[in-house]
Design a protein that fits this description.
The protein is mainly β and 68 residues long. It has one domain (1-59). 0% of the residues lie in helices and 24% in strands. 15% of the residues are buried. Bound molecules: zinc ion. The site of zinc ion has 8 residues, from loops.
Length: 68
């Protein structure tokens, strides 16, 4: 039903909260206009190389701040 958008590293985006599609790392993009690689990136553990949009660009925030 709801398809999560997966945005590749380096894509131009607006401010928002993103989650690594590979490891689940939460990244809050406040000012930058392009997405960096995940800080935990390695080619072995990160085959998707993209971020899932949690908030921003009209996508309703689901769980932007997991209590973990
Ligand atoms: Zn990651």
């Amino acid at each position: 039903m709801v398809q999560k958008t997966c945005v590749p590293y380096g894509s131009d985006v607006s401010a928002g909260t993103y989650k690594c599609a590979d490891c689940g790392h939460i990244y809050s993009n406040q000012s930058k206009k392009s997405l960096p690689p995940c800080p935990k990136f390695s080619s072995a553990s990160h085959p998707k190389k993209c971020w899932i949009i949690l908030s921003g660009q009209g996508d309703a925030p689901n769980d932007p701040y997991p209590s973990k």
